Amino acid sequence: MGTRLIVTHVFDYPTFLGTKILSEPFPQLEKDAFKTHRAKLVQFCEEHLGGNWENPNLQLEVVENKSAFKGIISAAEEWRAYLIVIGIKGDNALRKMIMGSTTKHLIEKAPCPILSIPLDASYMPIKTIVYATDFEEEDVYAIRKVAEMAEQFDAEIKVVHISTKKEYKGKIQMEWFKGMLHKKISYEKINFELLNSEDVFNTLRIYLGDCNADLIVMLEREKGGFLKKWFHRDLVKKMESYGRAPLLSFREGNHQLFYLSAVL
């Protein structure tokens, strides 16, 4: 995709009974800590990327912070990242809990979109992207950014909405949304699906499997009614835990920043 990748590792100084051994570490000890963790990061890249990983578009960043979430945010702000990539689900219960919490915090607070990748995911060319929509104007801007990505892979975007019995104007809203999208987005490989169900999560989960989705995209809402806001947020979190395909989550306040020119 022609982007810069900043491989980031966040570490904290050793603690003893909940208290940092070095509240104000000596310069040499601090320097040694960074040197040690950078060496681990180099070893990690050599192990997973092979001997040719060193190039101008891939750089290493070691950050000291007691909070993984805050450390990642600080690196993203320093590099003015347009996308944060993070793995989800670890190899033990504690790691699952920590990484799950970090990912959820990033989805809610990060200054740029979050791409969450399941542990057992293997790289496949992106051919099918599913965008779950609520028929809101903010979705149009997010889909426009997704179209910029899809065009590079010649991928199909499936815009899907799941309508419940209470939402009796689903078909009318879909036609209105189509018209608004066509006015603002010229990408041709966009299709629309309107599904009817009272179980939004499971219906979406089954749909993703049926269409072999390579990427799921959702927008984290920041405004609207209380129930609607929290329902949608819960759905985003469920999809993050779904763990079958990567989830790209835009936050309503920062989706306009996504230009695919930098990746963390």
From TrEMBL:
InterPro entries: Rossmann-like_a/b/a_fold, Universal_stress_UspA, UspA. Gene3D superfamilies: HUPs. It holds the Pfam family Usp. Residues 2-116, 126-173 form the UspA domain. Signal peptide: none annotated. It comes from the Bacteria. This is Nucleotide-binding universal stress protein, UspA family.
